[in-house]
Amino acid sequence: MISKKAMGISPSPTLSIDSKFKEMKANGEDVVGFGAGEPDFDTPQHIKDAAIAAINAGKTKYTPAAGTLALRKAVADKFKRENGLDYKPSNIVVSNGAKHALVNTFMAILNPGDEVIIPAPYWVSYPEMVKLADGVPVSIQTTEEDGFKVTADEIRAAITDKTKALILNSPSNPTGMVYTREELQAIAEVAVEKNIYVVSDEIYEHLIYEGEHVSIASFNDKIKDLTIVINGVSKTYAMTGWRIGYAAANDEIAKAMANIQSHASSNPNSIAQEAAVAALTGGDEEILRMKRHFQKRRDFMVEMINSIDGVSCSMPHGAFYIMMNISKLKGKELYGTVITSSDDFAELFLKVAKVAVVPGRGFEAEDFVRWSYATSMDNIVEGLERLKKFLSGKYE
């Protein structure tokens, strides 16, 4: 029999949509996908070269469970250089992607029944990860009108005697919102006052088009001690398949995370670790090139979506996602189907127009569907033309 814990975990709708898209494409269907959060660029050559050199040098053995000293030093240097944060290599735990780092975090800090505050819309895996660690996810709903941001006062009001942590994701998946320095400062004050952990997911930090990235851990020693910073190389360096993420935390938490990982998976891939060192030390020319393309795509998509009757979107300031508001379509009939939910819209859009987008239900954003602009401009133009035709009822 399947365990109660496993039965209580929901499948990822983003991976489900991407799997359906890839299946249709493999079957020869003319489908366009906007589901997965994966840069369409190739991994930069100097990073691939470092991996090849590692293979040729025989760096194919086990490494320390928390990652090689060279990579942990490179991560610590990155935090100092880019975020003004002082960490020792012993404060760094390198994992099999940022997802793994998050699971390690919740396993390290949560006891059964501990509550974790999660602003919604949120990345689909956060609540499931909390539940895997026997915690209780508690969402705070934000609105498009307020920029999809939670306030310090809202967080304070949601804190109970069972609250153990708060998850912050800036820039955000799925909304693309970015918290300002002032907003983060106010949230940090609440976290310190109430003595709760902040799990700060900063995986999209280099993909900000307006404003700046500020790590909440950088304000003072008290908030730094309470913060577990999550990051990785997948989004910034187009290295999704390499599976290298990392966390920075105080001595006690980092030690606990490394211990958990040593039993769960041991070390991350040795060759990918060598490649990650090259990524973190190889300059930002490739990052800036990809960022320019993403911004161009974002601007085009926002303008086009807002020109189509029945849908709209706000301008995201970071990451590579757009949340399209479909609330005006609810209750309307399209192609013999009444749209009652984001799932209805996404399923019908895929079936009729052969375009894959992610329904908002999994993000706790039922009036929205998520588009990723981590795809080519040709795909974006084609997908939006199909959206316009779909909403005009012109498909037979």
From TrEMBL:
Q: What SUPFAM superfamilies does this protein map onto?
A: PLP-dependent transferases
Top enzyme category: transferase
Q: Which UniProt keywords apply?
A: Aminotransferase, Pyridoxal phosphate, Transferase
Transferase in keyword set: yes
Would I find Nucleotide-binding among this entry's keywords? no
InterPro entries according to UniProt: Aminotransferase_I/II_large, AspAT/PAT-like, NHTrfase_class1_PyrdxlP-BS, PyrdxlP-dep_Trfase, PyrdxlP-dep_Trfase_major, PyrdxlP-dep_Trfase_small
Out of the domains of life, which is the source? Bacteria
Q: Which CDD domains match?
A: AAT_like
- Residues in the signal sequence: none
Output the Pfam families linked to this UniProt entry: Aminotran_1_2 (PF00155)
Instruction: Tell me where in this chain the Aminotransferase class I/classII large domain is found.
Output: 30-387
**According to its UniProt record, which cofactors does this protein need?**
pyridoxal 5'-phosphate
Coiled-coil intervals: none
Q: What is its EC number?
A: 2.6.1.-
Q: Which GO terms describe its biological process?
A: amino acid metabolic process
Q: Which GO MF terms are attached to this record?
A: pyridoxal phosphate binding; transaminase activity
Q: Which Gene3D superfamilies match?
A: Aspartate Aminotransferase, domain 1, Type I PLP-dependent aspartate aminotransferase-like (Major domain)
Give the protein family.
Answer: Belongs to the class-I pyridoxal-phosphate-dependent aminotransferase family.
Q: What is this protein called?
A: Aminotransferase
Q: In which organism is this protein found?
A: Candidatus Avimonoglobus intestinipullorum
